């Protein structure tokens, strides 16, 4: 899950735009970076391990010349992050440069074949076979486009690639299969990139390349064709609705903090879903004999929360399943009576798409909930809904979690109405509560940042945290744990609080910080018991509870007060916010970059 960017400009140097494009894609991977440009028929390549900001200075990227070029920021899958394995990779004569996002599964056999034909390889990557394959095809006096087409037909696996060559210095050839790629057209040039934020500064006119398509970019525009048979494909430009500012940090030091503070707005947008899609998805859910909620990471936590909401509101049993385990667990039973609601903010997560592909092959109904228009999930779903969170750049999902739970709540309410499971009064009351959600989050953001900063200072030295909740709050606790774990690298546990006495309580020592999620509701009495259990072993109790909840406040060392009147079923949305802030503040206090946690990337497009 790397970031690729390319541009062909009418005039001016491309190096700045390439660096800017890579910078905007760094959330996809940042362990090494490289640029290739053609100037006066000469292919220049500079690349090394490290983040763009360091490598660019070290290798003086700004000295590179030309109005056409490609750039890559990497998240290593094959070959350690070092200069040799960094992209672009070239052919034997250094005249063809390729950048790639994805995994070539049959690269070993292709490499063997090419070595037998006299090619030699310098890196341990899968990608390096591509420029050599193209070189091999071009030997037959075949042009760059057709040689790339032929080379791609030899590849098995996933790819988004961009090819630049000094042999045909006026064009970039790019293509995709499974990994995302979008084109952009402006008055001054043509672009390709892994994601819209990278080209948004130059244009809002885009084309989403589809699986198995190749495009040739020149200053005049683009032509698209099918990889399998070279057939020409015409596709109109689409307009991107959100503006650049939404993809900028504005006055915030980090994207994560900006996106946490954007939640009141993203939740308000999330309450204005497109009616016809809500209707369609609800109808499909109603028909489903068995309904699976499938997602990875934070999206998985939305699925867990959703399963409580569907059961309690619409009396619909749903099965929340971790994407990477779906095929193994339900692959042999899923079928025509199954409905899969896949949840993925990027709409490109490999594990989730794999679960979907398997289900579709067995005639299951696939529905999608995503934040990304034009993503693969939107194309493979029978019906999908866009959660309207706006672009999320920080690797740690924040506003996309709260929007997902908000959308799932609205679908459950709609289904409850369709099935007559709630009285009109109950429906009206829940709808009124839904409308209050953005205001509650606004209130929490205004009041709790400072107390959470002091909390972070108090617990800065702790090496282990335990997050606990009961009922739907176990999903909130898991999300809190994931935020802390992924951006502070602090070991942390999370599980339904009732499980403590079945094992985990054994690790609790004097002073172990236990974070409890305790909204008012059906689980309130039991969570008090769980707190007492941990307290009895010397744990320090941090409780997220309703303001003035004296029972909880009385048995906790620290509390973060939540606005009154939040129903338990909607509590994962506002109650996740202080947990997002706690993780953020601890990361910043520890001098870590919350936007680009080590070993992670925003969308995981490989197995
Ligand atoms: C969450 O903060 C992480 N970035 C990660 O767990 C993420 O939720 C997961 O990779 C799923 O991504 P998706 O929603 O784009 O499918």
Structure, described:
The protein is 37% helix and 23% strand. It is built from 18 helices and 25 strands. A hairpin with a 2-residue loop joins β9 and β10. α13 packs antiparallel against α14 and α15 runs parallel beside α18. The longest helix is centred in the C-terminal third of the chain and has 35 residues. The radius of gyration is 25 Å and the shape is globular. The mean pLDDT is 94. The site of 2-deoxy-2-amino glucitol-6-phosphate has 16 residues, from α9 and α15.
Total beta strands: 25
Bound ligands, each once: 2-deoxy-2-amino glucitol-6-phosphate
Average pLDDT score: 94
Strand content: 15-25%
DSSP helical segment count: 18
Low-confidence stretches: none
Sheet of most strands = 8 strands, antiparallel
Radius of gyration equals 25 Å
Quick structural overview:
This protein has an 8-stranded antiparallel sheet, covered by helices on one side. The chain is built from 18 helices and 25 strands. Helix 4 packs across helix 5 and helix 13 (399-419) packs antiparallel against helix 18.
Features:
globular, alpha/beta, binds 2-deoxy-2-amino glucitol-6-phosphate, seven-stranded antiparallel sheet, 18 helices, 37% helix, 607 residues, single chain
């Amino acid at each position: 899950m790397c970031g690729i960017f390319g541009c062909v400009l009418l005039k001016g140097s491309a190096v700045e735009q390439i660096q800017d494009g890579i910078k905007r894609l760094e959330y996809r991977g940042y362990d090494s970076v490289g640029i290739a440009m053609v100037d006066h028929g000469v292919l220049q390549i500079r690349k090394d391990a490290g983040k763009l900001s360091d490598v660019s200075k070290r290798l003086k990227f700004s000295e590179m010349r030309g109005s056409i070029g490609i750039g890559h920021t990497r998240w290593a899958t094959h070959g350690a992050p070092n200069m040799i394995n960094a992209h672009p990779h070239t052919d034997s004569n250094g005249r063809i440069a390729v950048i790639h996002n994805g995994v070539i599964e049959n690269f070993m056999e292709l490499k063997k074949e090419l070595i037998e034909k006299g090619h030699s390889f310098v890196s341990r990557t899968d990608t390096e076979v591509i420029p050599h394959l193209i070189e091999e095809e071009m030997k037959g006096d075949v042009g760059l486009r057709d040689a790339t087409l032929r080379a791609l037909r030899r590849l098995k696996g996933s790819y988004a690639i961009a090819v630049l060559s000094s042999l045909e210095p006026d064009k970039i050839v790019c293509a995709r299969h499974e990994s995302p790629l979008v084109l952009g057209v402006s008055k001054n040039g043509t672009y390709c990139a892994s994601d819209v934020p990278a080209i948004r500064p130059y244009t809002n006119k885009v084309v989403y390349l589809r699986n198995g398509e190749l495009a040739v970019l020149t200053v005049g525009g683009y032509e698209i064709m099918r990889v399998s048979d070279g057939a020409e494909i015409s596709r109109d430009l689409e307009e991107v609705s959100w503006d650049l500012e939404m993809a900028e940090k504005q006055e915030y030091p980090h994207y994560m903090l900006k996106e946490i503070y954007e939640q009141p707005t993203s939740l308000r947008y999330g309450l204005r879903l497109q009616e016809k899609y809500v209707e369609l998805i609800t109808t499909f859910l109603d028909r489903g004999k068995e309904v699976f909620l499938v997602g990875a990471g934070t999206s998985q936590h939305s699925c867990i929360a959703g399963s409580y909401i569907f059961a309690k509101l619409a009396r619909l049993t749903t099965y929340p399943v971790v994407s990477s385990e779906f095929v193994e667990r339900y692959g042999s039973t899923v079928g025509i009576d199954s409905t899969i609601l896949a949840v993925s903010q990027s709409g490109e997560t490999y594990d989730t798409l794999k679960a979907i592909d398997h289900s579709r092959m067995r005639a299951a109904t696939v529905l999608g909930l995503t934040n990304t228009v034009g993503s693969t999930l939107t194309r493979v779903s029978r019906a999908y809904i866009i959660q309207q969170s706006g672009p999320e750049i920080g690797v740690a999902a924040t506003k996309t979690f709260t929007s997902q739970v908000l959308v799932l709540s609205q679908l459950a309410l709609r289904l409850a109405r369709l099935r007559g499971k709630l009285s009109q009064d109950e429906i009206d009351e829940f709808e009124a509560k839904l409308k209050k959600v953005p205001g509650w989050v606004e209130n929490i953001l205004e009041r709790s940042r400072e107390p959470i900063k002091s909390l972070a200072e108090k617990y800065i030295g702790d090496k282990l945290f335990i997050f606990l909740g009961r009922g739907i709050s176990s999903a909130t606790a898991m999300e809190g744990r994931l935020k802390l774990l992924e951006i502070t690298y602090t070991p942390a546990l999370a599980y339904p609080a009732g499980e403590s006495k079945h094992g985990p309580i054994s690790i609790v020592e004097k002073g172990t910080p236990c974070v409890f999620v305790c909204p008012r509701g059906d689980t309130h009495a039991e969570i008090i018991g769980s707190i007492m259990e941990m307290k009895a072993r010397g744990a320090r109790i941090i409780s997220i509870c309703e303001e003035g909840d004296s029972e909880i406040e009385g048995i906790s060392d620290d509390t973060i007060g939540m606005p009154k009147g939040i129903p338990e079923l909607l509590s994962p949305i506002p109650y996740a916010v202080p947990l997002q802030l706690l993780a953020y503040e601890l990361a910043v206090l520890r001098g870590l970059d919350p936007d680009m946690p080590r070993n992670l990337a925003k969308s995981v497009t490989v197995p």
